[in-house]
What we know:
The structure is a single chain. The longest helix has 21 residues, at 277-297. The chain contains 12 helices and 9 strands. A 5-stranded parallel beta sheet has the order 6-5-7-8-9, sandwiched between helices. It has a 4-stranded parallel beta sheet with strand order 1-2-3-4, with helices on both faces. Helix 6 links the parallel strand 7 (201-204) and strand 8 (220-223). It is 38% helix and 10% strand. It has 373 residues and is an alpha/beta fold. The N and C termini lie far apart (68 Å). It folds into 3 domains: 10-113 and 275-297; 129-269, Rossmann fold, CATH 3.40.50.2000; 338-372. The chain has helices spanning 31-42, 57-62, 89-100, 143-160, 192-196, 209-215, 244-252, 256-269, 277-297, 324-327, 339-355, 357-372; strands spanning 23-25, 47-50, 83-86, 104-106, 129-134, 167-172, 201-204, 220-223, 236-238.
Amino acid sequence: xxxxxxxxxxxxxxxxxxxxxxxxxxxxxxxxxxxxxxxxxxxxxxxxxxxxxxxxxxxxxxxxxxxxxxxxxxxxxxxxxxxxxxxxxxxxxxxxxxxxxxxxxxxxxxxxxxxxxxxxxxxxxxxxxxxxxxxxxxxxxxxxxxxxxxxxxxxxxxxxxxxxxxxxxxxxxxxxxxxxxxxxxxxxxxxxxxxxxxxxxxxxxxxxxxxxxxxxxxxxxxxxxxxxxxxxxxxxxxxxxxxxxxxxxxxxxxxxxxxxxxxxxxxxxxxxxxxxxxxxxxxxxxxxxxxxxxxxxxxxxxxxxxxxxxxxxxxxxxxxxxxxxxxxxxxxxxxxxxxxxxxxxxxxxxxxxxxxxxxxxxxxxxxxxxxxx
Length: 373
């Protein structure tokens, strides 16, 4: 898409001389931005909210904005932009439940288009695996939130000091809790994706880093001592100190069953079947055209409930993780992988079933049962 792009401060959206074919925002909480979006709609200038992170319980329901008008307005209740490009289907369901069903378009997120999956490999004997410990950029929205995060990180740090801990820690935590890292914090100093390529597992508080880790193919545990509903669940969850030991041992040797579940969560959270950028551009192009037609006709700006052709309505397929011999190690039959030998055995078994006296009696009984009905 050829476009003349420029950055505009939120107050600039209220300028009566402001002109654009499309305005893209990633925040609606600042009053000038909120007022600007309403003004743009009145002038038939379309606006698209390009979400750059996940929706999260505390930010949605426990942010001080919920307390009173003086603190601001509740997040995404409603979305003020004309459309929001949702990261994935589960995020769209969350936002739709807040009264935004007709504004949600599932596009995926362009920031994940270039992520390279890491192949999990064996750690040399006698050497500990590496664990990335992360928080969201905003670890909490109230003092109680931040104290809960600090407490959970301190408990994790204490456990990792023990001789039995299977990991050495790499810290990447927000400034508000950086003291826990003891000067070893890498937040803002090392690119996240560089770290994803050198670690073996991730523990994160509720954050879009969960998605980065899952997309990178790493086992990721959710650290939440507040035990709140998770808009993005995880295959491993730590809600109390006594869960640290068992969970870290599982992360050190992630089971194929949990990794399969994590992959399902990933595809529900992030539409990643193909790059997101073309879908976002298609949505933007459609909105631009609708805006131009509305302005030419002098009509109010309106959009269909679904602008993108949802060719991916069917569930994501994750069969490539279905290693049946690993998922069901107690079933020796799944370890048989000689196709020709199995075909021959199947042929013999079919013949044996046809000539078996038990099978003949069973078929006769079935026929009698049908006749009696």
